[in-house]
Amino acid sequence: MHGSSQHFQETIHHSSAICHENIAMWEELKTAAQQLSARIDWQGRMNRYPLATMATAMALGYVLGGGLFTHFTARIIKIGSRLVFVPMLRSKAKGWMCSLVEESGQAEDHVTM
C-alpha cells in the first residue's frame, strides 16, 4: 500500500512539473508572437495597403487550403507564363533579328568597298 502511495505522489509531482513547463512554454510563445506581430505591424500594413493585405491573405488561404497542386493552378500558371514570357521572347527575337540585319548590312558594306 505504501509503494502505491509513493508512486501516486511521484505521478502528481511529475504532472505538476509538466504543467508548469507547459505554462512557461505558452508564455514564451505568447511573448514571441506579440514581438513578431509588433515587428510586422499587421494593423499598420492593413491601414496603409488594404488591397495588398487582402490579396496576400487570399493567396495564403488558397495555398494552405490545398489549392496549390490543382488543375486550376496549373492552368493559371500556364496562362500567366504566356502573358509574361511571350512578349519578352518576341522583343528579344526582334532585337536579335535587328542585330543580324545590321551585321549583314555592315558585312555588305565591307564587301563593296
Care to give the gist of this entry?
The chain is 91% helix and 0% strand.
Describe the protein's architecture and organization:
This protein is mainly α and about 110 residues long. Helix 2 packs across helix 3. It is built from four helices and no strands. Helices cover about 90% and strands about 0% of the residues.
Determine the strand fraction and express it as a percent band.
under 5%
Give the distance, in angstroms, between the N- and C-terminal Cα atoms.
117 Å
Helix-residue proportion: over 70%
User: Which residue ranges are poorly predicted, with pLDDT under 50 across at least 5 consecutive positions?
Assistant: none
Task: Tell me the series of helices and strands, N- to C-terminal.
Answer: HHHH
Key structural traits:
113 residues; mainly alpha; 4 helices; 91% helix
Task: List strands and helices in order, with pairings.
Blueprint: H1 2-40, H2 42-48, H3 50-64, H4 71-112
